[in-house]
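Worked example 2:
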Amino acid sequence: MTKGQHNALIVRREESVRTMGKDYLVALLLLLIVPTVYNGPRVLTLTAVSAAACMLGEIICCLAAHRDISIYDLFPITTGMTIAMLLPASAPFWLAAAASLFASVIARGPFGGTGHTPFHPAAAGIAFVTFCWPDLVFSYPDLSSGQKLPIFGDCSEFPTVLSPDTALKQGLKPEILPLDLLWGQFAGPMGTTATLVICACGLYLTLKKTIDARIPLCFVGSAAVYAALFPRIMTTPLTSVKYELLCGSLLFCAVFLAADSVTAPRTGPGKILYGILGGILAMLIRSYGAYEQGACFAILLLNAFSPVTDRLVLSVRERLMERAARRAGLPDGKGGGV
């Protein structure tokens, strides 16, 4: 490869990263509208703090590693926004900042930044604060009380309510209207409850070729099959599927975390297998884990399997080609040789 070709490749890669960052930013901004309407302007300040902390962590890592700081790399910002979406609207600002700094400094920076992270930084950040401060991560504001969340103040005294995921964890049927399930008007992580908007974001990212739809579809599909076969509440399989898919962060994680092109497999069959495994892992952790939300932990386990998935697919493909070649009387699996 000539120097000119190498430089052209770098330019194309930077343009691709920039475009993907813009696509994620547009999708997250669209999704941000719903929790802002329901919870008020505190959603915007919490998201801004999370994104700023993630950007600060990125700058620190770049300075420490003597890497250039790109103003066009939007992934630190979208990572911070994703973390905010997975937190309750009443979460303290320091909690969002802690998750974002962990994501940026620990899960992202040491591996070289954008395009080199083996684990999704946002999933790592949420897993970190979930392990350290689970009571704050799963404490949701009761907006039916008529009180308003303070834009900048402390929410520790704000009335709280149990989420549908907590009810499912306890073997109880959530009392939520079907329309509220679709529009996300119930307790949960502030950006993960609006099913219709998340689906619209997934469609947008798919049409822009930012994500491969096979991963979220297989993720959600395998989770739905698991929920139908092994319901956690005494109800019909279809009702179990409805609550498991729409009440928690599973759908959001399928679109914004599992389908991430950096951590996902490269092969088509690998992506399908990856998605199926992710949905099953998420349901297993949700059913038997210590926390009501298990999708982020499932994503991290899934990321670890990503290279293995591709190697498995390529190994099976090579063996099938060799077998087909032997049946055709050819000396190898490459179509023959002399």
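The chain has a mean pLDDT of 87. The chain has one domain: 3-327.
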